[in-house]
């Protein structure tokens, strides 16, 4: 249910930007979702339907892009995908010391609008 904590601010930001740009409507939102957020796309879409009801966003298409997890090894600086199959270790030096650099985000990347005439 944490999807709603992401969708409400995203909708508010999109609506604010549309107003600033005097948009007639918002046709699409492009959102990137990191794998580590545990956001479930179908639930996210459902909440978007509720959050956008009776707003300039109501008929907008939600375009979601899932962002894989990436880590940076603190020993050798190699960037890799931490996975169970590699025991979450750096495949280059086998160190377990790493920092997640991608995959925790939920980002509104862009908004498509229909301009007022």
Give a description of the structure.
By secondary structure, the protein is α+β, with helices and mostly antiparallel strands. It has a domain at 3-68 and 102-115: 2-Layer Sandwich (hypothetical protein PF0899 fold), CATH 3.30.2320. The protein is built from 2 helices and 6 strands. The strands form 2 sheets. The protein has a 3-stranded mixed β-sheet, covered by helices on one side. It has a 3-stranded antiparallel β-sheet with strand order 4-3-5, with no helix packed on it. α1 crosses α2 (41-52).
Give the topology, please:
Blueprint: H1 3-20, E1 23-34, H2 41-52, E2 61-67, E3 70-73, E4 79-80, E5 98-102, E6 106-115
Parallel strand pairs: 1-2
Antiparallel strand pairs: 1-6, 3-4, 3-5
Summary tags:
alpha+beta; three-stranded mixed beta sheet; hypothetical protein PF0899 fold; elongated; 6 strands; 26% helix; three-stranded antiparallel beta sheet; 117 residues
Please work out how many helical segments DSSP would assign: 2
What is the N-to-C order of secondary-structure elements (H for helix, E for strand)? Answer: HEHEEEEE
Tell me the strand percentage band: 25-35%
Large-scale geometry: elongated
CATH architecture of the domain at 3-68 and 102-115: 2-Layer Sandwich
CATH fold node name of the domain at 3-68 and 102-115: hypothetical protein PF0899 fold
**Ends apart, CA distance between termini:** 39 Å
**CATH top level label of the domain at 3-68 and 102-115:** Alpha Beta
Question: What is Rg?
Answer: 18 Å
Can you list the strand order of the major beta sheet? 2-1-6
Question: What would the average pLDDT be, to the nearest integer?
Answer: 94
Number of strands: 6
Structural class: alpha+beta
Low-confidence stretches: none
The largest pleated sheet is described as: 3 strands, mixed
Helix amount, in percent? 25-40%
